[in-house]
Write a structure and sequence with these properties.
binds zinc ion; alpha/beta; metallocarboxypeptidase activity; zinc ion binding; Peptidase_M14; signal; metalloprotease
């Protein structure tokens, strides 16, 4: 969930060379070409162009404005009973959630036979850019409050008690007592508006697209991982059905991403962040005025390698798109229910971080 250092890493010359001996660029030569990343205005223009040629199938709704007045837009498409929410760029310096969700949306609109079937089974709410101000400033946080929008949904007394019960089971000290008027957060307008959109849509499933740093696969390989899947809550916070479903989603995504040939999907480390957007959505967290949607989504997230460059961008986007289709196809044809959830825990762990200083130690100060 953190892009530790977007500039640390360089594009690989050949995506297949995914090991630490690969062509890393020495310190001082890492450049990020922002012109290769779609701006909020470009993403919006593409969404509207798609809507215009979709013959009414795709509807773009502006649900409000960001803290700096940029449109917050959701693409709605599909007529199925199962509702899926996909969001990207909640962290402004983690760009490719927008490119990946837009690519996914394009395929939905272009309407092959298989896609038509998917749209009969599933209704989508797709948010390529949750935090447009953050993206324009290329910062993780929003622009007005400088807070992490993925820690700004609501937590109530019941969820708080659950957190402390999980902490106790892990031998961790309880969190200090809270004033729950304050712990129902929604400081940013983005959080408020997206909560109401979520409460209105009531998605069964959510997928949240992020970037992380660059890491090894496991602790004893020389391989680099470009893609991790993760769940933002301790299993003790979830119902058994939720825990099974979100792990099945992770397995379906990993299988599909691994098929792109250059990717070895790893498991994102343990976290438990109930005030995160997709977490609060799983917990029926309270809304901005303390109201309830009485809804629990099933949600997980993708993390792409942070190193972004002209040559690596294509496959970093593609692994996300493949992962999305892996989940969606399995949902559409009903096979998701047959995925072995326990395979999730067998995915290789995300290993130690890889930096250019590891590769070029004589060029680093420490
Ligand atoms: Zn993130």
């Amino acid at each position: 969930m953190a892009l530790i250092a977007a500039l640390l890493l360089a594009p690989m010359v050949a995506p297949g060379v995914a090991n630490a001996n690969g062509p890393f660029v020495p310190p001082g030569q890492e450049t990020l070409n922002r012109s290769s990343i779609l701006s909020a205005a470009e993403v919006s223009a593409e969404m509207h162009a798609l809507a215009a040629r979709s013959k009414g199938a795709l509807r773009i709704e502006e649900i409000g404005r960001s803290g700096r007045g940029r449109p917050l837009e959701i693409a709605f498409i599909g007529t199925g009973e199962t509702r899926v929410w996909i969001q990207g760029r909640i962290h402004g310096n983690e760009p490719y959630g927008a490119e990946a969700s837009l690519d996914f949306l394009k395929t939905l609109v272009s309407g092959g036979k298989k896609t038509q079937e998917v749209l009969k089974n599933i209704s989508f709410a797709i948010i390529p850019i949750y935090n447009p101000d953050g993206f324009e400033e290329y910062r993780r946080q929003d622009s007005v409050h400088r807070i992490d929008l993925n820690r700004d949904w609501g937590v109530d007394r019941q969820i708080f008690d659950q957190i402390n019960s999980v902490r106790a089971s892990r031998g961790e000290a309880p969190l200090p007592e809270r004033n729950f008027t304050n712990y129902t957060q929604y400081r940013a307008v983005e959080s408020q508006q997206f909560w109401y959109a979520w409460a209105d849509f009531k998605p069964h499933h959510m997928i949240d697209l992020h970037h992380q740093g660059t890491y090894y696969v496991g602790d004893d390989t020389d391989e680099m991982t470009t893609f991790s899947v993760g769940i933002s809550l301790d299993p003790g916070m979830l119902t058994q059905s939720q825990w099974d479903t979100v792990r099945r989603m992770g397995v379906a995504a990993a299988d599909a991403a691994n098929k792109s040939g250059v990717v070895e999907t790893t498991l994102y480390p343990y976290i438990n962040i109930p005030e995160g957007v997709v977490s609060a959505a799983m917990l029926n967290g309270p809304g901005p005025r303390g109201e309830y949607a009485n809804w629990r989504s099933n949600a997980m997230f993708f993390e792409s390698r942070g190193g972004i460059g002209q040559k690596s961008g294509g496959y970093l986007i593609k692994q996300n798109v493949n992962g999305l289709w892996g989940i969606i196809n399995a949902m559409s044809d009903g096979s998701l229910a047959n995925v072995d959830a326990d395979r999730y825990n067998e995915l290789p762990a995300r290993g130690a971080t890889i930096t250019t200083c590891i590769k070029f130690p004589n060029q680093c100060d420490f």
